[in-house]
Amino acid sequence: MSIVIEDASIKQLDELYKIETECFKKEAFSRQHIANLLTDYNGISLVAKMNDKIVGFIIGIIHMERNTLAGHILTIDVSPPYRRKGIAQRLLKKIEEIFKEKGVKSCRLEVREDNVAALRLYQKLGYKKIAKLEYYYGDAHGIYLRKILS
Ligand SMILES: CC(C)(COP(=O)(O)OP(=O)(O)OC[C@H]1O[C@@H](n2cnc3c(N)ncnc32)[C@H](O)[C@@H]1OP(=O)(O)O)[C@@H](O)C(=O)NCCC(=O)NCCS
Asked: Per-domain residue ranges for the chain?
């Protein structure tokens, strides 16, 4: 089955919020927060579809950091039955491509230090660990990773 990556729309909010709550428990973004990100002028949101069904999504944002444009991945979610099919890789590569087209020079993200799946994904795609974020998730530490987009 082929995976199609498309721009996300606010009209898909219900489906995206459902996947967000399947993927994260306490740390799930609220419906309102996802709505705000989907309509943020500096936000980039993509959905992954299989047979026309949304099975994953990614949301990133572009900031200005020390006079350089930087990308920040805020969430990447793949619905549990569709994992290990390369969907997250496709989403991440596509958002990096869009960042680069917009002149973004680097991409950063944060992840729970015990999130092995996400850490392996990011490292496979060339993200490097920059720092440990003490108690970033309340009870758990985070890791800050970054990739230079060349
Ligand atoms: C992390 C997540 C997005 C990965 O999505 P996915 O579509 O299953 O990932 P992919 O199939 O593209 O996997 C790409 C690579 O990531 C790594 N990976 C993904 N899931 C993994 C797992 N469960 N265990 C170990 N490595 C894993 C592997 O290196 C994999 O490459 P491979 O299949 O060739 O070995 C998904 O597990 C998810 O939605 N988790 C809950 C939400 C979350 O934690 N998001 C990240 C927050 S920072």
From this structure: 3-105
Q: Under a CB-based contact definition with an 8 Å cutoff, are residues 146 and 108 in contact?
A: yes
- 110: CA distance to ligand 1 center in Å? 15
- Check pocket membership of 103 for ligand 1, CB cut-off 6 A: no
In this prediction the pTM is 0.97
Question: Which amino acid type is present at position 127?
Answer: Y
pLDDT in tens, 31-73: 999 999 999 999 999 999 999 999 999 999 999 998 999 999 9
- At the topology level, CATH places domain 3-105 in Aminopeptidase (3.40.630)
Residue 66 Cα, ligand 1 centroid: separation in angstroms? 31
